[in-house]
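## retry 2 of 3
previous attempt timed out at serialization; input unchanged, resubmitting
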Amino acid sequence: MIRGSLKRWSVVLLALLGFGITIAVAACNPDTLKVRSAQVSQLVAATVSDPKTFNYALNNSVPNVFPFTFSGLVDEHGVTAEIMPSLAESWMISADKLKFTFTLRPGLKWSDGHPLTADDVLFTFKDVYLNEKIPTDVRDALRIGSSRALPSVRKLDDRRVEFTLPEPFAPFLRSMSAAILPAHILRETVYTNDADGKPKFISTWGTDTNPNQIVVNGPYRIESYTASQRVVYRRNPYYWRKDPQGQQLPYIDRIVWQVVENSDVQLLRFRSGELDLSGLRATDFQLLKREEHRGNFTIRNGGPYSGTTFLAFNLNQATNSKGQPFVDPIKSKWFNSKAFRQAVAYALDRQSLINNLYRGLGELQNSPISVQSPYFLKPEEGLKVYEFNLERAKSLLRTAGFKYDAKGQLLDADGHRVRIRLSLPAGSPRTQQLGAQIQQDLKRIGIQLDLDPVDFNVLVERIDARNWEMYFLAYTGGVEPNEGSNYWMSTGTSHDFNQGPKPGQSAISNWNVSDWEQEIDRLLIAGAKEFDEAKRKQIYAKFQQIVQEQAPVIYLVNPIALSASRNDVQNIQFSGLDWRGSLWNIYELKLAS
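## retry succeeded, writing output
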């Protein structure tokens, strides 16, 4: 599942990061589906969960249907992260960097044959994404500068739209990958209210909607959906892409997205020949590597995943509407000690996590910015890292006033036993193993860590309510640092470790923003405003240095992205950079005849 404001920097239920979730393209199940020799070409994609919505604006989960069904003005290359034209064939940026003009491709159509024009772009942004009545995370990606002002948009003609920004904003172009929505289908739902006085749009295109009513512009439309079983996609006859020979894409006529919750079952299906392409866990690698030639498949190494896995401390010192502190004041004092946070970081044997949980197929992680990003600061360039060092950890704790009793248990200066609840998503054996090792690591410096695995949605509710002490989660990543601003800006909607007032919630009091948080705010605003790449790199280097020095979160490891595919599936381009994995260019995948 995703939390946050951006498709990349959103909290995921440990998806696509080696914690048991895989996406697979599969051969047909002969018991329920047509065999491949049928006239209609077909692949089956396996996913661990049902889609949560068919409405892109309301989406907050991974995996989802939208890589199949919708396109934006631009897209990102899944291997290089280069910005590519999509529905827009070109764009122009004014000299003052305040106006972005996009020109749509000629002859675009929706899946129902209706023309796709600048009116749809205008509707999508002005009426939906920029509409404060619509609770969409996309809007956060469009907030600019310290004022968090939104851009304006106007139609120039049927193929051109112009966005005007309140100030220069370098990440703006990348944010234009947000899906364009059909005005002729959805406009009425935005301006018609339900019985509660809310726009009907908010309840439109849920997963209970007849798929025939879902009008899309991506390579596939939704043909049918059976909860807990499958989503069937059918080739969109009006999709705009063509291959170099002029053949309309996508090549494959139908995709069946099977819901298979157990990753071990997915592995068995791949080994038996049912699946053509599957994301792999590290534990699968050695087994499948021995079968690679005999099984007529290839294992691809996509490098480290671009996301982050981390522990977070709740630094919030505010009180609720009843004057009650969100965090026990005793524990809040620990968490707000930089020395305490750094001591925990030094106590974690992260290399053992890689060796034990990932069979060595991982890399140490030290930054909020993905290693694939040109803005990533390497340790040799000045990034602070926390090498495993128990003596250093204990020394920091003693310097901060902590002490040990005769049993080696850590006590604070007032004699309180240091005992912390770590909240983490339930359901993944890998996650529980990781939690158990962290528990053992902290025991070696006298800290009692109580593991609290809960349903992901329950964990999200706790985080939103500020009712937690430490948590473990994972974020998807990307090359643009500003895509993490919703987490790192003190006013961000997902600034979990010190969440301020949020719209729709009860008032809070005594919320304090530290000096270093304010400096991060300043740096992120400056970095987004700067178009000079060298200067941007310097700004984000300072940002990374502050995060690592202050350690409000402790980064753990980057698993290596692995994928196995049958050799008759062609045009696969796999990388750990893109959460879509081998499906980012689904329109180009084809089956050898």
